Amino acid sequence: MTLLLGGRLQWAQRAVRSVLDEPSGITGTVNFVDLMPRYGLLWQAGPTIQVYANASNAVEPPLLLELTAPGNIDGNLDDLKAQDGWQFEIGTRGSTWEERLLWDLSVYDIELWNEIQNVNVQPFPGAPFTIPRYQNIPRSRHAGVELGTNLTLIENVAPALGLAGIAGRIRFVNNFTYGSFRFVDDPAFGDNFLPGLPEFFLAGELRYETTSGFWFAPGYEAVPSSYDVNSENTATAPGYAFANFRAGYLYAPWNAEIFFEARNLNDVNYVSAVEVDSAIGQYFYPGDGRSFYGGLQWRWM
User: Fold this and answer.
1) Do the bridges between strand 83-96 and strand 101-121 make them parallel or antiparallel, or are there none, so unpaired?
2) List of residues 6+ apart from 94 with CB closer than 8 A
3) Closest CA to 236 of 195, 288, 286
4) Model confidence over 163-190: pLDDT tens digits?
5) Phi–psi pair at 37, nearest 5 degrees
6) Is 125 exposed, middle or buried (0-12, 13-18, 19+ CB in 10 A)?
7) Fewer CB under 10 Å: which end of the chain, C or N?
């Protein structure tokens, strides 16, 4: 078992000066100095299997664009505090069955103080648009699970099916995430979900690779349930699921590949991005319908 210790000393300065003769809006300098320790354990449970645990502190000073966002202009640089948090994580990664199954599993809990949140406010009463304003959330928690798997279903496809043809293999590649991101005893929002983040996200593909370089990969992407888009948890974005297809050819001697991708084959209407906490209720940005892409890539390193 290996014990890992580390840390980082961070210093950041944000300075804003008015370009006018008279002070206008935010003007001044603010400094952030933090020491961030890190601890870790790594256990080599087998030749190809690792189990790990980490605990780390992270401090994120506000960016200049957050301090000087249009909605923050009437404030002071000291109004927005640095985001401070501890992240705890346990997980495992590795392979088994002669590398027929590869995985990476992580379970995490991030305890946050003064998380920086973007809210979108009206610049004046009745305005048909919003401007960003940043504020601190006193306490919040991000907890969840991330799992990635790569399973070889059939190693030699043609012989396994009793057919003559080009040798190849079929793999199922899948990614799953679950996140419970919440306020913690907030004076206004209690333990509501933080807006804009789906609890579940899944994406995967069934990939057929031939030894000649051709590959084909039907796949899917899904957000199986609705998720909140405002801190009051009164407005939600709907879930969705759609099918994809990718194909390509890799010319190994040149490390060059040509590929084709079709997304949203079932032409689903879905929300691809949201504007959280919109003061005028315009939360949703539509995703593309059925769409097609292609390209050529060459790697020389």
Assistant:
1) antiparallel
2) 45, 46, 48, 49, 50, 102, 103
3) 195
4) 555 668 999 999 999 999 999 999 999 9
5) -75, 155
6) exposed
7) C
Residue 216 dihedral angles phi and psi, to the nearest 5°? -140, 140
Residues 9 and 96: their CA atoms lie apart, in Å, by: 39
Instruction: Indicate the residue type of 230.
Output: N
Low-confidence ranges of the chain (pLDDT < 70): 1, 4-27, 158-167, 301
| Cα–Cα distance for residue pair 142/194, rounded to 1 Å | 9
For residue 15, count other CB atoms closer than 10 A to its CB. Answer: 12
Residues forming beta bridges with residue 165, ordered by sequence position: none
The pLDDT, as a whole number, for residue 25 is 57
pTM of the model: 0.87
On the CB side of 14, how many CA atoms lie within 13 Å of its CA? 21
Which token pair is 106? 């992580």
Instruction: State the architecture of 88-298 in CATH terms.
Output: Beta Barrel (2.40)
b vs e for 101-122, b when ≥16 Cβ sit within 10 Å of the residue's Cβ? ebbebbbbebebbbbbbbbbee
Instruction: Kindly list the domain boundaries of the chain, sorted by start residue.
Output: 88-298
Nearest by Cα to 11 from 29, 35, 27: 35
